[in-house]
């Protein structure tokens, strides 16, 4: 399940960007890292005009891009680095596809891995598992917790960790070197909500709230987004937490592939009297489809260009499509259809979308973001209550395996499908 920023939140971010608080960098968030434009120098002559243009317009800026920020000419692309000084980074294209310099990257595509030993199709592949959210005592704050009647509560962060642990066993048996971005129901970030109270005040002030309320009464308080507590909690469990995970992935784990594991949900309303839905679906996400307003932020524009140039998409979309088909076969779920304009359908499976999420943007390697199952659908809720078990059980009249095993099996089948073909 993905945090959906409210219009109020987007409004605040934009105001923050336009405010005079940051004279040099126009950042998307008070805790965003400023861009390191010099890091793009290593990509000179690593891409042709046509490849760059295809990725830019087909995947990353599929919603359009203003020439005030990125211009593409036959020989070069110019990317705005400082809007006040009007300085630009110039990327030189290689004219001849056969002569382009190799792409510098810390991860290895399937074709660059050493030939698999007999031991396993995934031998040598470094996979980092990223169980979505924090869970445990943080689950309610994250709004990833609900409880229906006398049944035990449903916590996404606990469920994703459970899937990750099962998955690790199966992937290691196939030869993969598996690491965890998070391996317990605790934050990866060393910070806590109280550390962000000043940043929260800054955000609220930029949005025109000079004297914000400190606290809110209940989670259904319609004005809770305008309190210091709510803003500082978001900065903690989403902003700081995901950025800290990115540091861990990029500096320490350095995997060839990250799998972000989530369960989806439909709006459930009151967490203690949740609405159960008849809808159930599946989709996968890769990074892309930046909104024109997001590309105005220096950090997001830089991270988008860096991602494009590191050429993760070619590998990412092939893995995502294969994994989506395997998951669809395993779960029998139909594809989710977005009703918002912040995604672009990509690939051939019908299940994969490009979307600009913080995790898929910041992890510097191919990232596949899984969103199967609607946790508060009648069927999935019943399967969660049944827990983990061997074989099958009768759930609402249908014999079903444990939802956790089905999830893990789907992911494994998808990776096998891709790497078996790609490493032959
Ligand atoms: Zn989630």
Describe the model:
With 424 residues, the chain is of the alpha/beta class. The protein contains 10 helices and 14 strands. The chain has a 7-stranded mixed β-sheet. The protein has a 3-stranded antiparallel β-sheet with strand order 1-2-3, covered by helices on one side. Strands 5-6 form a two-stranded antiparallel sheet. Helix 1 (7-18) crosses helix 4 (197-206), helix 4 (197-206) packs across helix 5 (228-253) and helix 7 (312-331) packs across helix 10 (403-422). It is globular and about 65 Å long. The two termini are 35 Å apart. Zinc ion is lined by residues 1-2, 132-133, 156, 262.
Topology:
Elements: H1 7-18, H2 49-60, E1 70-72, E2 76-82, E3 87-92, E4 126-131, E5 145-146, E6 154-155, H3 156-173, E7 177-180, H4 197-206, H5 228-253, E8 257-261, E9 282-287, H6 298-309, H7 312-331, E10 343-345, E11 352-355, H8 358-362, E12 367-372, H9 378-386, E13 392-395, E14 398-401, H10 403-422
Parallel strand pairs: 4-7, 4-8, 8-12, 9-11
Antiparallel strand pairs: 1-2, 2-3, 5-6, 9-12, 10-11, 13-14
Helix pairs in contact: 1-4, 3-10, 4-5, 7-10
This protein binds zinc ion.
Unreliable runs: 6-23
Helix content: 25-40%
> How would a crystallographer describe the biggest sheet?
7 strands, mixed
* Number of helices in the DSSP assignment: 10
Secondary structure tally: strands: 14
Main-sheet strand order equals: 7-4-8-12-9-11-10
Structural class of the helices, strands and pairings? alpha/beta
Percentage of residues in DSSP E strands: 5-15%
Global shape? globular
What hetero molecules are in the model?
zinc ion
**CA-based gyration radius:** 22 Å
SSE pattern? HHEEEEEEHEHHEEHHEEHEHEEH
Q: Measure the end-to-end span.
A: 35 Å
Mean pLDDT comes to: 93
């Amino acid at each position: 399940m993905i945090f959906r920023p409210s219009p109020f939140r987007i409004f605040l971010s934009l105001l923050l960007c336009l405010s005079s608080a940051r004279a040099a960098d126009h950042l998307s968030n008070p805790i965003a890292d400023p861009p390191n434009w010099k890091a793009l120098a290593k990509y000179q002559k690593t891409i042709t005009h046509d490849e760059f243009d295809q990725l830019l317009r087909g995947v990353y800026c599929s919603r359009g891009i203003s020439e005030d920020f990125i211009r593409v000419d036959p020989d070069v692309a110019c990317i705005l680095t400082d809007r006040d000084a009007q300085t630009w980074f110039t990327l030189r294209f290689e004219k001849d596809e056969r002569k382009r310099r190799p792409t510098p990257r810390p991860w290895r595509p399937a074709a660059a891995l050493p030939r698999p030993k007999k031991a396993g199709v995934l031998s040598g592949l470094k996979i980092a598992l990223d169980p979505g959210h924090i869970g445990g005592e943080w689950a309610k704050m994250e709004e990833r917790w609900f409880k229906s009647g006398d049944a035990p509560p449903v916590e996404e962060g606990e469920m994703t960790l459970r899937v990750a642990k099962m998955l690790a066993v199966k992937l290691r048996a196939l030869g993969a070197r598996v690491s965890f971005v998070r391996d317990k129901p605790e934050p990866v970030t060393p910070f806590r909500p109280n550390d962000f109270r000043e940043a929260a005040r800054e955000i609220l002030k930029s949005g025109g709230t000079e004297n914000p309320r400190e606290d809110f009464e209940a989670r259904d308080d319609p004005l809770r987004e305008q309190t210091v507590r709510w803003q500082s909690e978001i900065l903690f469990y989403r902003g700081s937490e995901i950025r800290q995970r990115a540091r861990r992935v990029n500096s320490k784990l350095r995997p060839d592939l990250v799998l972000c594991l989530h369960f989806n949900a439909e709006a459930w309303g009151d967490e203690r009297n949740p609405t159960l839905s008849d809808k159930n679906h599946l989709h996968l996400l890769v990074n892309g489809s930046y909104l024109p307003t997001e590309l105005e932020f220096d950090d997001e524009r830089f991270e988008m260009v860096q991602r494009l140039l590191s050429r993760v998409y070619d590998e990412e979309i092939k893995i995502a499509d294969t994994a989506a088909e395997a998951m669809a076969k395993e779960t029998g779920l139909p594809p989710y259809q977005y009703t918002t304009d912040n995604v672009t359908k990509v690939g051939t499976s019908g299940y994969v979308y490009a979307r600009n999420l913080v995790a898929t943007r910041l992890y510097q390697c191919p990232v596949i973001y899984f969103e199967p199952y609607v946790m508060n659908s009648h069927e999935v809720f019943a399967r969660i209550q049944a827990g983990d078990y061997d074989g099958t059980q009768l759930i609402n009249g249908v014999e079903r395996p444990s939802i956790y095993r089905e999830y893990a099996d789907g992911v494994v089948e998808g990776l096998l499908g891709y790497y078996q073909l790609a490493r032959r």
